[in-house]
Design brief:
Strand content: 15-25%
CATH topology of one domain: Immunoglobulin-like
Distance between the termini: 107 Å
Number of strands: 26
Radius of gyration: 27 Å
Oligomer: single chain
CATH superfamily of one domain: Immunoglobulins
Number of helices: 15
Mean pLDDT: 96
CATH class of one domain: Mainly Beta
Largest sheet: 8 strands, parallel
Shape: elongated
Structural class: alpha/beta
Length: 615
């Protein structure tokens, strides 16, 4: 009898242990909204051994359609139907034996009217900011206890410098004065990695702003304040890979959440193989499925759970913060069909929203393959409205340093390249730029920075040709950077963004004479461009190079702008008869000088001189 009682006691004891309440560590997404266009919601639950629990939900109008278990017993993936759901908080209950864990889940009322979410387009100019390097508005969040990289060292090019969202917010008036209409932020989501976390491209939490930048609410506040000043906000996202310290990798749901069954195999970086009709299967697979680095595991978007997880994370930020656009990192490195599905899913929810994909390829043919409605990709369609015109960037970084002939060099590069725009489904939706956070700055060194003629020609062309221009922070004050000296040198701190800086380039008094001249020129051109339908909506017509001079016209309805640019270091006189169809009047105002220019039989331009004539 005594043995029976002992056995019963032990049985009860271990039974209690076996049926202890579940501890849920992560819920993703953290909340959602009723009334979305797509009624399906994936809810990912992460906690110790939760897969052995039964799942129920308390709502009568939220249907639990599927409960998915993974290789890892620490995950449960729920798929629910919200077709009939009103805003509410319902309970997700995990039950095992007599123990229950209740997880309240909120469906919020939508705060964003999808019809009012206006994406960026050719009427905008994007200003690219790396948050860690722009300005430090809140020194109290420089170091966050518990995060892996817990120091700030502004002398270390790959270390954290302390820039944050508050720093950007503090300088919205500067950006508004400059004349930009949209801010593109390098990744702001959590990068809790041991080192080099400043750049943001190794995300460890898709639903959390990095606490060293601020909070989710502070991000939303920044978006709202920027929009009140007439500036849109574009958010950088990364679907190809995540950081190795992301819980979905460090305790992965299953091996097939990552390519090569979660084993590190480096990419070849040769993404031309995606559209190469002669490419071997191996070349294609190693380019797309290979990993950037061992600390950036390559996500397998062909796994339906991974795909839904990523799609929802982007829609969550649009709805939560009201952003106007997304820049998708390393777009061709991810699965084509998934990325196409993602672009469509976003535009199904927000028809006027825009996404730009990083398409770092060396020819317009290869870049054009990735644009929405490309004939080269048919019958497949990427659904990606805007692609990045890297080939034009390469030409612009040479054109204004070279002498121009009628058949080669200098401005001929630009003319010749634009004659090939027939390969693009929509040339006006290309993102154009002189540089960005991954390339040498347009002014690679001080000598180039001092050549303001070179600078002014480049800015004028960038802001008047077809496409959506992007400026990299500090370009307007001639910041320099050579990629050969390290990526950190391309991402220097903006002078004046930190208390105690030797000078403050956010103010005219802190700039050198050359910097001030560059700033004022850029400001003039940007503010002239702002709201100018001729440039934002107009067609492009151009003429072949004549005596080293490039002439092109932007036209919208009965208004036009004609740009005349001398690509040589010598005086040139050109006959105007060949351009008669773009010169409707004998006089026009020059935007650059404010003077009225009389147009006779010919026109003389001094060394590298430009006209921007308004008709």
């Amino acid at each position: 009898m005594k043995r029976v009682l002992v056995f019963m006691a032990l049985f009860a004891f271990f039974g209690l242990i076996g049926s202890k309440a579940a501890v849920v560590k992560k819920v993703a997404p953290t909340f959602w909204w009723a009334g979305m266009n797509n009624p399906e919601l994936q809810i990912l639950l992460y906690g110790d051994n939760i897969a052995s629990h039964d799942v129920t939900i308390s709502s009568a109008d939220v249907e639990l359609r599927e409960v998915v278990k993974q290789e890892n017993p620490n995950y449960l993936i729920l798929y629910v139907d919200l077709s009939e759901a009103a805003p509410q908080t319902f309970n997700i209950t995990l039950k095992k034996g007599k123990k229950e864990t209740v997880i309240p889940y909120e469906l919020k009322e939508r705060r964003v009217n999808a019809a009012n979410v206006k994406g960026f387009d050719a009427s905008d100019v994007l200003y690219l900011i790396m948050p860690d390097r722009f300005a430090n508005g809140n020194p109290d969040n420089d170091v966050v206890p518990g995060m892996l990289e817990n120091k700030v060292n502004r002398n270390e090019q790959y270390g954290r410098h302390g820039g944050d969202l508050k720093g950007i917010e503090n300088h919205l008036d500067y950006l508004n004065e400059l004349g930009v209409t949209a801010i593109w932020l390098n990744p702001t989501q959590e990068n809790d990695m041991p080192e080099s976390s400043y750049h943001g491209y190794a995300i460890t939490d898709y639903y959390q702003v990095d606490r060293r930048y601020g909070t989710n609410e502070e991000f939303r506040q920044l978006v709202e304040k920027a929009q009140k000043k007439g500036m849109k906000v574009v958010m950088d996202m990364i679907f190809n890979h995540c950081g190795a310290k992301n819980f979905i990798f460090s305790d992965k749901p299953s091996k097939d959440w990552f390519n090569f069954k979660s084993n590190f195999v480096p990419t070849s970086y040769k993404t031309a193989s995606v559209q190469d009709v002669h490419a071997s299967e191996y070349e294609h697979k190693i380019a797309v499925d290979g990993w950037f680095t061992e600390v950036m595991p390559d996500l397998n978007q062909r796994n339906r759970h991974v795909a839904q997880f990523l799609i929802q994370s982007s829609i969550w930020w649009i709805e939560f913060a009201g952003i106007n656009g997304i820049r998708q990192d390393t777009h061709p490195y991810a699965d084509f069909d998934f990325m196409a599905r993602w672009c469509k899913a976003v535009n199904d929810e927000y028809p006027d929203f825009n996404i730009v994909g990083e398409t770092w390829l060396n020819s317009n043919v290869l870049v054009s393959f990735w644009q929405k409605d490309s004939k080269l990709a048919a019958p497949r369609n990427s659904n990606l409205r805007t692609v990045m015109d890297f080939p034009l960037m390469e030409h612009m970084n040479k054109a204004f340093d070279e002498e121009t002939t009628d058949w080669a060099g200098g401005l001929y590069r630009l003319y010749d390249y634009l004659t090939q725009d027939l390969v693009y489904a929509d040339p006006m939706s290309l993102l154009t730029f002189l540089d960005n956070h991954d390339t040498s700055r347009y002014s690679t060194n001080d000598e180039k920075a001092q050549n303001l003629t070179r600078y002014k020609q480049a800015i004028t062309f960038l802001l008047t040709t077809r496409g959506i221009p992007q400026l990299y922070y500090g370009t307007e004050i001639l910041m320099t950077g050579d990629k050969g000296e390290g990526d950190g040198m391309l991402r220097k701190d903006f002078p004046g963004g930190w208390a105690g800086d030797a000078r403050n380039c956010f103010e005219a008094t802190g700039r050198t004479a050359k910097e001030q001249e560059a700033f004022e020129f850029t400001k003039k051109m940007l503010n002239w461009r702002k709201g100018n339908d001729v440039i934002g909506k107009g067609s492009l017509k151009h003429y072949s190079i004549n005596q080293g001079v490039y002439v092109y016209e932007r036209k919208y309805n009965d208004k036009s702008v004609v740009v005349i640019m001398n690509g040589n270091d010598r005086v040139q006189t050109i006959a105007l008869a060949p351009y008669a169809e773009s010169l409707p009047k004998s006089q026009a105002k020059d935007v650059l000088t404010g003077k009225v220019i009389t147009l006779g039989k010919d026109l003389t331009l001094s060394n590298r001189q430009m006209y921007v004539l308004e008709f």
